[in-house]
Amino acid sequence: MTANGGTASVTVGIVNVDVTPLPGIGVRKDFALSSGRRVGVVTHRDGHIELIVSKADDPDACLASLPFTAEEAGTLANLLGAPQLVARLTEEHRELAGVSTRQLPVRTGSPFDGRTLGDAALRSRTGVSVVAVMRAGHVHPSPHPEFVFTAGDVLVAVGTTEGLDQAATILRHG
User: Fold this and answer.
1) Which pLDDT tens digit goes with each residue over 119-139?
2) Which of 21, 51, 57, 66 has the most neighbouring CB atoms within 10 Å?
3) Which of 134, 99, 106 is nearest to 120 (CA)?
4) In this structure, which CATH number among 3.20.20.70, 3.30.70.1450, 3.40.630.30, 3.30.70.370 belongs to the domain 73-173?
C-alpha cells in the first residue's frame, strides 16, 4: 500500500485501487476503468454504501451514485464475483504445479448436508482447503470449521487433483 496525500493505493489483482478517507463521511475506494472513468464505492460512517461512477473528463466529479443496502451490495458483489472467484483462483494456481481449484457440490443426501466443515475434516483427510462456499448466489469466503453445509452449496476448494477427487468422494459418501 502506498500513500499519496491522504489517498492510499492498494493493488488488488492487477488493478490499483485508491482508498481515500472522506473526513466526516467515510471512505472512498475506486479504480480507473480502461475508458478513463473511475468506478468505486463510498462506505459511509453510518454503514450505508454508494456505488459511484466518475465523469470521463473529471475523475473527481461524480456522474452517478447509487445507494445500496448491505444486502444489495452483497448481491451485486456475488453477481460480479462468484463466477470470477473460481476463474481467478484457477488462473493464480495455474503456475503452481500440482495445485488445482475445483467446485465441489454438497448434494441432497450427502452425509454432510446439515453438518459442519469441521465434521467433514477435508483439510486433514485430503489436504484440500475450502476457500469459499457459494450458497444461493452468495459467496461465503474463508468458512470457519463451524460453517454448516446445506444441500445445494458449492464448495470452492484448492488442492491436488487427487485430494480434490477424495474430497468429492467424502462429500458424496462420507
Assistant:
1) 999 999 999 999 999 887 678
2) 51
3) 106
4) 3.30.70.1450
